[in-house]
Amino acid sequence: MEFPDLDSLDTLPKLLLHNAANWPDEVAMREKEFGIWNEYTWRDYRDRVRDIALGLAALGVGRGDRVAVLGRNRPNWVWSELAAQALGAIPVGIYEDVLPPEAGYLVEAAGASVIVCEDEEQVDKILELGEGVPSLRHIVYHDPRGMRKYDDPRLVSWERLHELARETAARDPDLFEREVAAGRGEEVAVLCTTSGTTARPKLAMLGHRRTLEHARRWLEAEMRGPGDEYVSVLALPWIVEQVYVVVMPLLSRIRVNFPESADTAMQDLREIGPTHLLFAPRVWEQIAADVRARILDANPLNRRLFDLALRLGTEATARGGRSWLADAVMFGALRDRLGFRRLKSASTGGAALGPDTFRFFLAMGVPLRQLYGQTELCGAYTIQKLGEIDFESSGYPFPDCEVRIADPDEQGLGEIQSRTPGMFLGYWGNEEATRESLTEDGFMRTGDAGYFDEKGRLVVVDRLKDLAVTSTGIKFSPQYIENKLKFSPYIGEAVVLGRDRPWLAAILCIRWSMVSKWAEGRGIAFTNYQNLAANPEVYELVAGEVEKVNAGLPEAQRIRRFVLLHKELDPDDGEVTRTRKVRRGVVDERYRPVIDAIYAGLPRVHYVGEVTFEDGRRGTVEADLVIRDTRAHREAERRAA
């Protein structure tokens, strides 16, 4: 496709005005509300951004200021971001499920003077901080429900913001266009939070021109344009969702659709029938688990048909094609039910997706591809080729993106270092971290271990710091084994242990949605996650899944003991990031008594620890956790005896 001239249209707001001038009546985005899809044209998009920008200008927002945005994925989230950029201000997105201290940290780190909140729930998080963020002057809220009881002088309603916009427009009707024209491509477009697996997230500064140039390379590798549809499911503060929802539509005019809620997302997706889709690995894993659960509940004939379709689809995939018979007996209808009937390309990124899950979707006829990248490099910069059977790698670099392996060992494994057109401008307020992250010749030190295969495809193994060696000298990748475990429909999360220990073990979390359904079907009584996870029959179920994984692993890398945790790993407890990456240091420290009991050979352990409730309150939880031996452990013990 032909791209806009990025020499003159070098900022996101300039592209918005360009699209509104040339395709004013073309639908740019849709939002489902109260069961109805509301459409917004490029003219609507521009007008709403202008109104918000003029309102923010009346609140004193100007060039170089920071504006935070907190809420779920909605058009007004995107409009608020573009409005800040139109004034030369810098937006910073905050995940909607953060706790007040996390929100406060990000607002303070950015020095934001204004935050745009969706509703009362998000406003409460900011008000709870009191005067702890001195830079914050105004709290704008979109949904007025429940807000009448508040009297904080910093609060500004959406209605009041638009009143201010009308007053500003009356005084200076050309202000919006003048400010947009004054923008420069070298300026910071957005502050994006890093994943923060080892510490608090940093704020990466991404520039307008660099972001647009990088997104153009991305579109050259994964083409899309007017008439294509995307459904926004992943959180907007994540860099890849930023590119898909904010940047790519401005460049290629792909339509973005916002579901009514997280609960209706899959139904809304079926109604749209997207042509392009991006899910995090955990979402693909959950969809695969849900499909398998429905098959378990199906009649014997449908179960046999599914098994036949899966076998035929897998065989066809291995040959580089698709099975028409598998589509006819099962997968055509299944793709339609999932909303995948029009998919041209489906992607996953943010973390590794297990090969078994990959095979499952490819066999189903879903054109799934793995992306790889970092926030600092404007998201992804490698992708697999459509039609190329590849379960292990992250594919090839985009045009003009450079990837190398630093200090490779005899197998070619070393640190992945990369340089892209979308290179960040540095970390906000942290020059030391910026220097440490870059090599002398300008490559980003990713901290990931990888190698190139014989076809020149990048294979990402694990985080360098997470590659481990047992006390007996056995090397292993925890992430690789964890992904195999999570392919089970009954295992929701896994943390593989073994660094500096004599053998491997695992802390596992059941997948509540699947195990609860399984238990109900067998008349097993339970009241909550904790007593379901402790049920002996559930332990037998999970033990069988662990044995299946062990059967495909080298003997030295098999799981020898495991424990089912009494709760899910929770970002509110700091155990995983907001993008569900395990914080191994936190897990090791918090569950040290459990880990010690596993390696001491104890059959059970009494655990006492802190937990964060949904409303943010902290409390204490106690649980008696059973530690289970696997066949590999029993056989090893017999040999030792």
Q: Can you walk through the features of this model?
A:
This protein is of the alpha/beta class and 641 residues long. The protein is built from 22 helices and 28 strands. It has a five-stranded parallel sheet with strand order 4-3-5-6-7, sandwiched between helices. The protein has a five-stranded mixed sheet with strand order 12-13-14-15-16, with helices on both faces. Strands 24-25-26-28-27 form a five-stranded mixed sheet, with helices on both faces. The longest helix has 19 residues, at 300-318. The termini are far apart. The model has no long low-confidence stretch (mean pLDDT 92).
Question: What's the topology here?
Answer:
Layout: H1 12-22, E1 27-33, E2 36-41, H2 42-58, E3 66-70, H3 75-86, E4 90-94, H4 100-110, E5 114-117, H5 120-127, E6 138-141, E7 155-157, H6 158-171, H7 175-182, E8 188-193, E9 203-207, H8 208-221, E10 229-231, H9 239-252, E11 255-258, H10 265-272, E12 276-279, H11 281-297, H12 300-318, H13 324-338, E13 345-348, H14 355-364, E14 368-374, E15 379-383, E16 396-397, E17 402-406, E18 414-419, E19 426-427, H15 431-437, E20 444-452, E21 458-463, E22 468-469, E23 475-476, H16 478-486, E24 491-497, E25 504-510, H17 512-521, H18 529-533, H19 536-551, E26 559-564, H20 584-590, H21 592-599, E27 604-612, E28 618-629, H22 631-640
Parallel strand pairs: 1-11, 3-4, 3-5, 5-6, 6-7, 10-11, 12-13, 13-14, 25-26
Antiparallel strand pairs: 1-2, 8-9, 9-19, 14-15, 15-16, 17-18, 18-20, 20-21, 22-23, 24-25, 26-28, 27-28
